[in-house]
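REQUEST FORM: STRUCTURE PREDICTION
Request ID: SP-0412
Submitted by: Lab K.M.
Chain count: 1
Length (residues): 148
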Amino acid sequence: MKTETKLFLIVMVSMFVFAGIYAPVTYFNENPAYGVPNQIEWVGTLALVFSGLLTGMVWLVFWVISRRIDPRPEDRADGEISDVSGEVGFFSPGSYWPLGLAATAVLAGIGVVFWLPWLMVAGGAALLFATGGLTFEYYTGTRKFGPQ
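STATUS: Completed
RESULT:
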């Protein structure tokens, strides 16, 4: 977690530095063709500040977790590749729920793009159903784990 912590710290600090540079540059960049007085371009400035805050939240999570757990092999100087060998996790061999999840997200997105409230509601309900199906796929039916 040390590597992720350093990475997000660098990104967070750079976003705040960029916001600190971007605001004065846009303020002093007067365009006489349009007759607009000096003013800060707030959309870009706030986007950089909020991006810094978002990466700061991720950095804080990684920092707290890295202090609570033992260093992983990739965080130690004496770590070997063989230290992380073994079972990585369980990956579904074949599931159609991600396809349904993507299709319902597209349905809800089309409702947002064309501002069709009925399609947004239908897409949102279908999205909740598909999320539940993906989450509980291995708790029901023929793929249920455990003694049967």
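NOTES: Residues 2-75 form one domain.
Reviewed by: T.R.
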